[in-house]
Write a structure and sequence with these properties.
The chain is built from 2 helices and no strands. The protein is mainly alpha-helical and 118 residues long. It has one domain (2-116). It starts with a helix and ends with a helix. This is DUF1515 domain-containing protein. Keywords: Membrane, Transmembrane, Transmembrane helix. The chain crosses the membrane at residues 86-104.
Length: 118
C-alpha cells in the first residue's frame, strides 16, 4: 500500500502543479491582454499627436511669411532710426548755427558794413 500511497501523493502533486500552471497561464493571458490594450492606446495617442504636430507645422509654415515681414520691418525701422538720428544731429547743428548767427547779428552786421564800406 505504500506504493499506492506514493502514487497518490505523486498524482496529488501533479494535480497541484497542473492547477498552478493553469493559473499561471490565465495570469499570463490576462497580462498579455493588458499589454495589448496599452499598446493599442499608445498607438491611438501617437496618431493624435501626429495630427497635432501636423497642425503645428502647418501653422508655423503659414506664419513664416509674417515672421520674414517682421524681420524686414525691423531692419527698415533700424535704418529709419539711424537716418532719424543723423537728421536730428544735422538739425541740431543747423539750429545751433542759426542761434549763433542771431546772437552775433550785431557783430556780423558791423563786420559786413566794414567790408563793404572800405
Amino acid at each position: 500500500m505504500e506504493e499506492g500511497h506514493q502514487y497518490a501523493l505523486i498524482l496529488d502533486r501533479l494535480g497541484r502543479i497542473e492547477t498552478r500552471m493553469d493559473a499561471d497561464k490565465a495570469d499570463a493571458s490576462e497580462s498579455r491582454r493588458r499589454v495589448h490594450e496599452k499598446l493599442e492606446q499608445q498607438g491611438l495617442t501617437l496618431v493624435a499627436l501626429d495630427h497635432r504636430m501636423a497642425a503645428v507645422e502647418k501653422s508655423v509654415d503659414s506664419a513664416a511669411p509674417t515672421l520674414s515681414e517682421f524681420a524686414q520691418r525691423k531692419a527698415q525701422a533700424q535704418g529709419a532710426g539711424m537716418l532719424g538720428r543723423a537728421l536730428w544731429y544735422i538739425g541740431g547743428w543747423l539750429l545751433g548755427g542759426a542761434a549763433g548767427i542771431y546772437a552775433l547779428r550785431d557783430q556780423i552786421y558791423a563786420w559786413w558794413h566794414w567790408v563793404t564800406m572800405r
